[in-house]
Design brief:
With 373 residues, the protein is of the alpha/beta class. It is 49% helix and 6% strand. β2, α10 and β3 form a beta-alpha-beta unit. α6 packs across α7. The longest helix is centred in the middle third of the chain and has 20 residues.
């Protein structure tokens, strides 16, 4: 039979019903528009055409030979084992190195090397303006007293009352403000003031004297001479207990006092008697490492009075000069913890008890100190 001629099939356009058929796009795609980056690269290529770049000499890379164990036939030497031992660079060694760096930076620098942090000049100016405004306001209370023959209690009463109200508005305790104003009034009574400037000087001088009398401690607070005296006469360490509410910086204050005493040539031991707060022993241990002071600790959930007694006994045997005892923070209304602190004081009879308080709590500090006392 004869072969049928091949019939070429043409692709028919696709259509939807009565719509116009969709013809496939057979046009050649247009070249994309050249961007500014492509144009810049093209100009740069023409500019550098014919120029050959010389390779820059590079330093040879030194490659250390990999450390391998010796073959089984040879004996392993100590030098080979030391070269393969990487256990010395653990977390503990790294922490020790960091503590040593910090200690050398801050603890061994002489006092002349300390740099003061520059204060913001704008803040200083604002504080000075506020202080001058408050001072002028207080002095204005006594403006009407200028030129009087002799000041009497009746003449001073209105100005003294305004001064007391001003002090109370500045968060001074009422009883303290009353003591200061009574002292100022007693100092001014019977004086013949001249001009307003002389009255201002008299009031300022009277207030300074009243504050000095109020803030002067009734007993000596020179712990350095007291510690040396106790060590010389009683042949025992001088004991200081730090107490206060939570988070006021008792451990940090203890470390500062320790550093001061060490600078004066005394041997100081620390006692970790905060056996309640998690991390308290580790915190004091870090301070002891930085200060290179001996720390006496017995862990957590221990009797604080027993830990303190053990530390004092060990310090006496070691011929230490001072023992600083850190205690757990507690609120003044927490009766069980306050009884624990009272037991520690009663059992160990420290030479000094330092209350560490927060300056921003205001009049609550009086309540804290009264109940701790």
């Amino acid at each position: 039979p004869q072969a049928q001629p091949a019939i070429e099939k043409k692709e028919q356009p696709f259509s939807f019903g009565d719509d116009e058929p969709i013809v496939p796009n057979t046009q050649v795609p247009r070249p994309q528009k050249m961007t500014s980056y492509d144009l810049l690269e093209k100009i740069r290529a023409k500019k550098n055409k014919g120029k050959s770049r010389e390779p820059q000499p590079t330093a040879p890379v030194k490659r250390e030979k990999a450390k391998r164990l010796p073959s089984e036939s040879k004996s392993v030497t100590k030098a080979a084992m030391g070269a393969l031992d990487h256990s010395s660079g653990g977390a503990e060694d790294e922490e020790e190195q960091q503590v040593e760096r910090v200690r050398q930076q801050f603890m061994e620098a002489p006092a002349s090397d300390y740099d003061l942090i520059p204060a913001d000049e704008a803040e200083l100016n604002d504080d000075a303006v506020t202080e001058v405004q408050d001072d002028s306001k207080v002095m204005s209370f006594f403006k009407g007293l200028a030129g009087m023959q002799e000041l009497t209690k009746k003449d001073l009463a209105p100005a003294i009352q305004k001064l007391q109200d001003q002090l109370v508005s500045k968060n001074v305790a009422v009883n303290i403000a009353e003591q200061l104003c009574n002292s100022v009034g007693a100092s001014l009574e019977g004086i013949k003031p001249g001009s307003f400037s002389s009255v201002s000087r008299l009031v300022r001088s009277a207030m300074t004297d009243a504050l000095t009398r109020l803030l002067t401690p009734k007993q000596s607070i020179d712990i350095l001479s007291q510690a040396k005296s106790v060590k010389k006469n009683e042949k025992r360490p001088f004991v200081i207990v730090f107490c206060g509410v939570n988070g006021v910086g008792k451990s940090t204050s203890l470390a500062k006092v320790c550093f001061y005493l060490q600078q004066q040539g005394l041997v100081v031991h620390l006692a970790a008697c905060d056996t309640f707060r998690s991390g308290a022993v580790e915190q004091l241990r870090t301070h002891a490492r930085c200060l290179q002071a001996e720390l006496h600790e017995q862990g957590y959930n221990k009797d604080a009075a027993s830990v303190a007694k053990y530390a004092i006994t060990k310090a006496a045997k070691s011929n230490a000069d001072v023992v600083l005892i850190d205690t757990a923070g507690r609120m003044q209304d927490n009766e069980p913890l306050m009884r624990s602190l009272a037991k520690l004081i009663s059992v160990n009879s420290p030479d000094r008890i330092f209350f560490v308080g927060e300056a921003l709590v205001g009049n609550d500090a009086v309540d804290q100190l009264t109940k701790f006392d």
